[in-house]
Amino acid sequence: HAADAHRTDLMTITRFVLNEQSKYPESRGDFTILLNHIVLGCKFVCSAVNKAGLAKLIGLAGETNVQGEEQKKLDVLSNEVFVKALVSSGRTCILVSEEDEEATFVDPSKRGRYCVVFDPLDGSSNIDCGVSIGTIFGIYMMKDNHEPTLDDVLQPGKQMLAAGYCMYGSSCTLVLSTGEGVNRFTLDPSLGEFILTHPDIKIPKKGKIYSVNEGNAKNWDGPTAKYVEKCKFPKDGSSPKSLRYIGSMVADVHRTLLYGGIFLYPADKKSPSGKLRVLYEVFPMSFLMEQAGGQAFTGKQRALDLVPTKIHERSPIFLGSFDDVEDIKALYAAEG
Length: 336
Ligand code: AHM
Ligand code: MG
What we know:
By secondary structure, the protein is α+β, with helices and mostly antiparallel strands. The chain has helices spanning 2-8, 13-21, 30-51, 73-88, 222-232, 249-259, 278-291, 322-335; strands spanning 60-64, 70-72, 92-97, 104-105, 114-122, 133-141, 162-168, 172-177, 183-188, 193-198, 209-211, 242-243, 262-265, 295-297, 317-320.
């Protein structure tokens, strides 16, 4: 029976990626091994997040990270777990983490071909109140066997091989794209395995939700202000959009991906480049959006075309349903 097959033939994330990779004759299983180490990090963080209150992990670690923000203990812990898991995979050569000012160059004895950029625990302002937080990652591959340099990670997002995020919410969800669509896996805690639950996710072509920190409206530029005004007071007879804003990029983007609509973190007078980081926030989410049939725009160009010059560079970002992003693009184009 089909129903039986559904319950007994479990498509784990490892099996899924092995199947995908087997299409490439040159595949040596390295990507699957790398992904397994990322998945291990996600499982660890999931378990740590769930135990956070109990284990008294909540609170300030008394450290400050690169961007001068207060760093929570869970961030520190998650970062260490990911760095160690990625280095020990033997498949990485450069790591860029939101929590580390400098990139990590893996020791030649443990070096592989992949570069991983990641935010180990994004949405840290939501840790203490139990709201969804997540891990975001992007994967590049070294082109040839040269000595690794920062230029290997300062590549446009369209060069990414894979990207994904894990959301620590009411369930633990991992959304992944290896460049052939987007697939969603859910952690079965009793098995400790991510199981394919939502294959080939497509974002609705147009949505009814916009997601932005409206507290910054005073400092917005013209096109952003006009767009949000249009969401609230549409002049074409359509219904106003609903506003949803969690303040965790992973959660806000996840909802946008599933329900449609638009997520904005625009530039403003105080932050002319916006807030979100190109390498490990903007690129992976833009990659997933495009793979799901949506779009991602910086206010100037397709987000994935951006060429970063610094590992912690920021960019404004507008991403989500194809038609909704078209609207904001038109407003920027009209501006000249
Ligand atoms: P963080 O790295 O300090 O957690 O900041 C990133 C987060 C994103 O998850 C979220 O989209 C954004 O910051 C929210 O920023 P704001 O509080 O300015 O609305
Ligand atoms: Mg972060």
